[in-house]
UniProtKB/TrEMBL annotation:
Gene3D superfamilies in the cross-refs: 2.30.42.10
Protein name listed in UniProt: Beta-barrel assembly-enhancing protease
Annotated GO biological process: proteolysis involved in protein catabolic process
Signal peptide boundaries: 1-28
Cell cycle as UniProt keyword: no
Gene Ontology CC annotation, any one: membrane
UniProt keyword Metal-binding, yes or no: yes
Stored InterPro entries: Mito/Outer_Membr_Metalloprot, PDZ, PDZ_6, PDZ_sf, Peptidase_M48
Cofactor info, note text: Binds 1 zinc ion per subunit.
Cofactor: Zn(2+)
Length: 362
């Protein structure tokens, strides 16, 4: 099973390593006073093993993970700096995400293993400014224990871990986590982070839209590509966070309908008929939409994002995907002219408060 003959490339590499030692030994035997004769033998070149070629599925999964990372990174300051404005939607959080190979679509299970994911949960993202970051939790840490109890593993690990952690986070005391890093186990005391408790999800669809069901914000893959910068992506997340804070899905009596759309778009192979037209979601009236725009500007400013380019972004979105595009954003948020006029007014109010050092609250 294991060949005893050294491969040709490995022989070349071994010679390349040993050759300089031979040269040094020869120089040591030179007579003093006589300059060494220049060597006509070319210096050996080390041959490196070829890098493994990434499979198309590995590339797809890396792209998916990268998109999720982008969402999490952009959303982080919006979640951590706006607990005051999130009202009853703010809770104590650990401040990191964790996945195992079962966290990805089933067709990616083997690919996830090839990228280092196994039965155990490992940290995939740390919320900047969170207690997890302060405690030293790092991406790639494998979760071994919580409060002295073994961390769940396997197909249902994420849900079981949430059940295990749920009674601990309400106590507000730091939580003891055992993590495996570079082959060594260490125990870290992680302070809890009081933040907006909305989950930010990536939707598996190419239509340019977003959805908010009161507890989740979903950005479709198509909308993620449309957002040219992280700041533009922040505009979208903040707008739907504002819809959730203001309870607009409840007021529209659309919680279950929007939740079904989000649930579907989280599947590896969503049913495209559920996003046809407006997906049964009622169009947002201009007063609710403008109220969400107003609150979103405060959420953005408090999180350190610029707000000068907000009107230009929404105008570009409406121009490229007008309300006539049935499964696009403007079809559900048609009052673009009214929204832009309100955004201009509120932007000036927010900037005036910033310059005067006043609290950034509506």
């Amino acid at each position: 099973m294991f060949a005893t003959t050294m491969p040709a490339w490995q022989k070349i590499k071994s010679i390349a390593v040993l050759a300089p030692l031979t040269i040094l030994a020869a120089c040591a035997t030179q007579e003093t006073g006589a300059p060494p004769a220049p060597s006509k033998t070319p210096l050996p070149v080390a041959v490196q093993a070829p890098k493994p070629v990434e499979t198309p599925q590995q590339k797809e999964l890396r792209e998916l993970i990268g998109q999720q990372d982008r969402l999490y990174r952009v959303a982080a300051p919006l979640l951590t700096t706006n607990a005051q404005l999130c009202r009853g939607n703010a809770h104590n959080l650990l401040g990191f995400t964790a996945k195992n190979k079962y966290s990805f679509p089933i067709e990616y299970a083997d690919t996830a293993r090839s990228l280092g994911y196994d039965e155990r949960l490992q940290v995939t993202g740390v919320l900047p400014g969170s207690g997890a970051e302060q405690a030293g939790i790092q991406r790639g840490d494998v979760l071994m224990s919580v409060a002295g109890k073994p961390m769940p593993q396997g197909t249902d690990a994420e849900r079981q871990a949430a059940v295990l952690l749920s009674p601990l986070v309400v106590k507000k005391a730091p939580i003891s986590l055992g993590v495996l890093r570079n082959g060594q186990t260490r125990v870290l005391n992680v302070p809890l982070t009081f933040a907006c408790a909305f989950s930010i999800e990536l939707g598996n669809a190419d239509n340019v839209n977003t959805y908010a069901d009161g507890r989740r914000v979903l950005i479709t893959r198509g909308m993620l590509k449309f957002a040219q910068t992280d700041e533009e992506l922040a505009y979208l997340i903040a707008k739907d966070m504002a819809h959730n804070i203001l309870g607009h899905a409840i007021r529209q009596r659309m919680v279950s309908t929007i939740a079904e759309v989000i649930d579907n778009l989280l599947l590896p192979h969503p049913d495209p008929t559920t996003t046809a037209g407006t997906a049964g979601i009622r169009v947002y009236p201009q007063d609710l939409d403008a109220a969400a725009d107003t609150l979103s500007l405060y959420l953005l400013a408090r999180a350190g994002y610029g707000i000068d380019n907000v009107p230009a972004f929404w105008k570009r979105l409406a121009d490229q995907y007008p309300s006539s595009v049935p499964n696009g954003y403007t079809a559900l948020h048609p009052s673009t002219t009214y929204r832009l006029s309100m955004i201009d007014k509120v932007t000036q109010i927010v900037k005036a408060k910033q310059e005067a050092g006043k609290p950034l609250v509506p």
